[in-house]
């Protein structure tokens, strides 16, 4: 169902960007299953027995929730089990964070309904070069897809003089996808973040995100690769963050009160990680650095050539989690290590073992994906809770056979993959 909020009768107003809400109804298969189940219900003489079974199941669920919520301090062992620790051995908010990680791990695949809010922001102060026509047009059109759970769908339209209460609003993750990749390519990871209680905004860039990037390739790249536009994208991210915050704190937009603007974490994969890293740690973009709690750089690299101005001694104090696989054939381990070394702020390096460039983030590499979910959820919860990156508490969430966590000024050595590079 595509619903234009400009024409909706529920009182919402878009307040600037073009907005639509995408809510996918149950599939035909699920409808057929429901019809079939109704047609094969047991006779009424068995209804009491069924009610007893349902009651027992509900009791079990309640008891499990009581164990998770009421346990003194819970931590995951290296092998994925549960162990108890003393009350003083962890950060005060670690109990809540670990519970969130457990929920995200167990429910990420079970999240059936995600609301996708489609927004469009236009930066009229800059221009866009078309790699399909070779023409430059005024303005940069940024498409943003906001992922959230149905629980955050209902927002009361407030009057112009009413303040917006953000105390119960969720944190926001702003995500930049890789080159020629849309949000849907990362569905398992984005759903896991939503399941953990975050609002997620995925940016679609003017040239490097489909359909623009796909069209250029279909024509044989007549005017060069759209990837060249990546140097303009840190400014795109800064602009989008500004517009999202303005929409969130304005009393008459569809985003009113949807997230806490003081609790924003950036994330990016591949070229998207390059862009997020450059925005925060490349001196060329220093004037654009937004107010964020931290950044997660997934299989990224530093900018090169004229766009490279990294100096760890001048890095802003924005913590980073850098993730890199030792088997990545697209983003070489040396590139991930270099990006980590260029950061002078508090940082953690998560080395994945045997994962492909995308598989660690779309659930194709199942075991590694679970560790990526655990580490990113814990890292974000810790930062928005006022903490700083610590190897001690995050390492306890990982299975060391598929991931290794470290910290320090220099990333650990990683042998280059034996296979030929490919993306």
CATH topology: Rossmann fold
Approximate strand percentage:
15-25%
**Tally of helical runs:** 11
Helix content: 25-40%
* CATH architecture title: 3-Layer(aba) Sandwich
Q: Tally of extended strands?
A: 13
- Reading the helices and strands in chain order gives EEHHEEHEEEHEHHEHEEHEHHHE
Question: What is the residue-averaged pLDDT?
Answer: 75
In spatial order, strands of the major sheet run 1-2-5-6-8-7-9-10-11-12-13
Shape: globular
Report the end-to-end length measured between terminal Cα atoms.
35 Å
Radius of gyration: 23 Å
Biggest sheet descriptor: 11 strands, mixed
Number of domains: 1
Given helix and strand content, the structural type is alpha/beta
CATH domain class name: Alpha Beta
Poorly predicted spans: 1-48, 59-108, 153-166
CATH superfamily grouping: Alpha/Beta hydrolase fold, catalytic domain
Write out key terms for the chains shown:
single chain; 423 residues; alpha/beta; Rossmann fold; 11-stranded mixed β-sheet; two-stranded antiparallel ribbon; 11 helices; 31% helix; 18% strand; globular; disordered N terminus
């Amino acid at each position: 169902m595509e619903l234009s909020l400009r024409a909706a009768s529920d009182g919402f107003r878009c307040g600037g960007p073009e907005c639509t809400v995408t809510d996918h109804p149950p599939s035909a298969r699920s409808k057929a299953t429901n019809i079939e189940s109704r047609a094969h219900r047991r006779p009424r003489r068995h209804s009491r027995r069924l009610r007893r079974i349902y009651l027992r199941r509900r009791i079990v669920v309640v008891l499990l929730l009581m164990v998770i919520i009421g346990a003194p301090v819970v931590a995951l062992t290296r092998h994925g089990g549960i162990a108890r620790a003393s009350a003083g051995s962890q950060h005060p908010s670690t109990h809540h964070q670990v519970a969130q990680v457990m929920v995200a791990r167990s429910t990420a695949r079970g999240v059936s309904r995600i609301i996708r809010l489609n927004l469009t922001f236009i930066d009229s102060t800059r221009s866009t070069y078309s790699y399909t026509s070779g023409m430059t047009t005024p303005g940069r059109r940024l498409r943003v897809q906001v992922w959230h759970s149905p629980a955050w769908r209902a927002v009361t339209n407030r009057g112009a003089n009413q303040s917006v209460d953000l105390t119960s609003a969720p944190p926001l993750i702003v995500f930049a996808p890789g080159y020629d990749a849309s949000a849907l390519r990362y569905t398992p990871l984005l759903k896991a973040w939503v399941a953990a209680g975050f609002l997620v905004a995925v940016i679609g860039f003017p040239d490097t995100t489909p359909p623009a990037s796909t069209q250029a390739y279909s024509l044989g790249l007549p005017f060069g690769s759209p990837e060249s536009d990546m140097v303009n994208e840190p400014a795109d991210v800064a602009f989008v963050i500004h517009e999202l915050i303005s929409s969130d704190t304005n009393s008459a937009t569809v985003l009113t009160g949807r997230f806490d603007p003081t609790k924003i974490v950036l994330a990016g994969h591949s070229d998207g990680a390059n862009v997020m890293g450059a925005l925060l740690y490349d001196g060329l973009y220093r004037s654009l650095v937004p107010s964020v709690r931290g950044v997660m750089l997934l299989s990224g690299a530093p900018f090169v050539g004229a766009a490279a101005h990294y100096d760890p001694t001048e890095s802003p104090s924005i913590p980073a989690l850098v993730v890199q696989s030792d088997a990545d054939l697209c983003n070489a381990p040396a590139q991930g290590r270099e990006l980590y070394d260029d950061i002078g702020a508090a940082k953690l390096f998560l080395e994945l073992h045997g994962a492909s460039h995308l598989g660690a983030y779309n659930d194709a590499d199942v075991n590694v994906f679970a560790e990526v979910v655990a580490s990113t959820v814990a890292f974000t919860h810790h930062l928005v809770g006022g903490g700083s990156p610590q190897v001690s508490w995050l390492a306890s969430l990982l299975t060391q056979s598929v991931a290794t966590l470290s910290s320090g000024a220099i990333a650990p050595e990683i042998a280059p993959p034996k296979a030929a590079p490919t993306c």
